[in-house]
Amino acid sequence: MIFESLKFPTQHCAVVNKFSVHEEVQEKLSCVAAQHQSVGPFMSTIGGDEQSQPQLSCYFPNSEESVRFPKQEKTSNGFFDYYLLDASSLLPVLALDICPDNTVLDMCAAPGGKSVLISQFLLIRGCLVASEVANQRRANLIKVVKDYIPKISKTKDLVHVRSLTGLKYGEYEPNAYDRVLLDVPCSSERHNLHTNFEFSFWSEKHSTENANMQGKLLMSALQTVVPGGFVIYSTCSMSPIENDGVIDEVLSKCTVKKQLKVEVVASQFENNSLAKMFDYRMTKHGVLVVPSKTKNWGPMYFCKLQRLTI
Ligand SMILES: C[S@@+](CC[C@H](N)C(=O)[O-])C[C@H]1O[C@@H](n2cnc3c(N)ncnc32)[C@H](O)[C@@H]1O
């Protein structure tokens, strides 16, 4: 069933770019069979003031059928109108619970969809570092950032694109970021199915190799986040080895190390009205969005971790 769903093209939603000319976007999307919804961060603080939080302005397909959105274009101020993505990609960013003045690290950032989403929550005192090691992918990321996100002023950027490997942040910049998004390279079953036509690429050995790298990246993320700050670990894989398996491994390493105190915390996803749009399972540590024929979003796994003060 999941395999059948994966063979269909991903459904898309459109996230309106707050830096574009809103009225032009609204007019363009008025003829699309999609409904508008504002979505905010999943709040970790019970009783937090949702009204004062910036929101994402999204268009979701009206029915279970896939909707064809018109191609993205620049509005009259030079910035692109919206970003198209699988709606499950919203969830790790919403779970990060970004405040407008946060310093955020997107540790594996290209092609840049989640960096664009993060930028929508930040105001002038906030800042995003988007890191990507692969040269060509980083070039694409730079283009996306330029197309979607303005500078704060002539001399100040909202987004800084860097080439530093995620593996080094913990060592070079300990206790530096309020929020870290770690959207790791993974087995990515949907992507591989559409490029390789076979499921034969999947092997436990390959998944275990991925998990090894993912665990190292997660340790680095937990060291570079400030005590009290949040890390979201996410994959677009259904492999338990790369999902809860990585979290188990890292939690036991932290217990042994003792210099790093970390806790898995509830993302609050299942209490949010957005949850009914998805087929999902609560796993030992996180949430796994599972593609189905009628809700063909994902796969997407995410887990929220908080670094505690020792
Ligand atoms: C799943 S993709 C990220 C997708 C991105 N977050 C988005 O939403 O557009 C993973 C990315 O991590 C990059 N990557 C792999 N190893 C890395 C490392 N050690 N440090 C930083 N980025 C890395 C890959 O080149 C790839 O572009």
Automatic annotation (TrEMBL):
UniProt-annotated catalytic positions: 236 (nucleophile)
Subcellular location: Mitochondrion
GO MF terms held by the record: RNA binding; RNA methyltransferase activity
Catalytic activity: a cytidine in rRNA + S-adenosyl-L-methionine = a 5-methylcytidine in rRNA + S-adenosyl-L-homocysteine + H(+)
Sequence positions that bind S-adenosyl-L-methionine: 108-114, 132, 183
UniProt keyword terms in alphabetical order: Methyltransferase, Mitochondrion, RNA-binding, rRNA processing, S-adenosyl-L-methionine, Transferase, Transit peptide
Ranges for domain SAM-dependent MTase RsmB/NOP-type: 2-308
Family from the record: Belongs to the class I-like SAM-binding methyltransferase superfamily. RsmB/NOP family.
The protein, known as: NOL1/NOP2/Sun domain family member 4
Encoding gene, per UniProt annotation: NSUN4
